[in-house]
């Protein structure tokens, strides 16, 4: 008991304001600022990595009319994937997988703040598959081959991300009729290693 309540004084009816926790939006902006923006504004990072091969924001197409992924995506997949696997499989000293986010920036890289990062898709790729064996996402990387087109479902088949976007672009999925393929703004990818 404190000394004020012993003397017969009445407890105060004034209530302390409730402790306000950060809102979900505040937490999101803190995370974006400390991870994505920190990555894209440092000189040693290849971020932001364009998702599509493009010429002044006009997306290039493959010979069969599919939207063309950038070579930088494949390079980053291999580079990040080697933190998880090597030729023997999943590395004992490696990460458990990769977390990635497709997003757009609403400001130039040098001026971007957390509110300018517009998330479009967040995904993960785990080093171990369902059978606790090397995930199919990482087999090509472990064998030091260049085939990363299907990593994280980013392939160009109809049931893969690029394929689905290509179908929408060509009007084959019945969802939209697009007359142009110019990005506004650019779509980019961010990667981080998943650790314990």
UniProtKB/TrEMBL annotation:
Highest taxon of the lineage: Archaea
Organism annotation: Haladaptatus pallidirubidus
Region (Disordered) residue spans: 1-25
Protein name per the record: Uncharacterized protein
Compositional bias per record (Polar residues), positions renumbered to this chain: 1-22
